[in-house]
Amino acid sequence: MPRIAQSPADLLSQSEALKLSGLEFMQAILDGTNPGPPIGQTMGYALHSVEEGRIVFRGAPSFAMTNPMGTVHGGWYGTLLDSAMACAVMTKIPRGSVYTTLEYKINILRGLPLGMEIDCIGVTDHVGRSTGVAHGEIRGVEDGKLYATGSTTCIVMKLA
User: Fold this and answer.
1) pLDDT value, residue 1
2) N or C, which end of the chain has less CB nearby within 10 Å?
3) What is the dihedral of CA 7, 8, 11, 17, to 10 degrees?
4) Angle 51-54-60 (CA atoms, 0-180°, nearest 5)?
5) What is the mean pLDDT of each run of 10 residues along the chain (160 residues)?
6) How far apart are CA 63 and CA 82, in angstroms?
């Protein structure tokens, strides 16, 4: 079960992180060896599964995630999709390298009811020496409906 970092001191140092492949890094968060980032707790989602080239986050929007109209804010969809797509790229990153999102795009297809459990799935399309490309989707766990899609481009940088 993932645990969440409570302060910056809980996170791995850059030198510790560079000793792990991206897949090892994500697996260590999933099994609780290493702490996950607090953004998941803030936004109501957690890492659910990890495999090479594929990540699933599971969560549900709460009232705290709504806009002034009382519907789920688009930033919630964007944050989840950015996390899933970029972390899918991370699973293909070798030891000694890091990555970050260069750009992403989302399409919200239908509104999510508050409290509805969803899976946010990120899948890689290509990861090379300098870039990674992935796509993602948000689907209802119970109804299987597609609620949003996204795509991303990440930069990959060799540091060690």
Assistant:
1) 57
2) N
3) 180
4) 105
5) 83 90 95 91 94 97 95 96 98 96 97 96 97 98 97 95
6) 21
Amino acid at 130: S
CA dist., res. 138 & res. 56, Å (int): 10
The angle subtended at Cα 82 by Cα 79 and Cα 87, nearest 5°, is: 125
| Beta-sheet strand order (sheet of 131-140) | 45-51, 54-59, 118-127, 131-140, 146-158, 97-108
Q: Report pTM.
A: 0.94
Per the listing, tokens 């990440």 go with 154
The per-residue pLDDT for 151 is 98
Rounded to 5°, angle at Cα 159 from 7 and 157: 95
Place of tokens 């119970």: 142
pLDDT for 30 equals: 94
How far is Cα 102 from Cα 108, in angstroms, rounded to an integer? 20
Structure tokens at 123: 């899948």
Measure CA 83 to chain center: 2
For residue 86, what is the enclosing H or E element?
helix 74-90
CA 160, CA 149: separation in Å to the nearest integer? 34
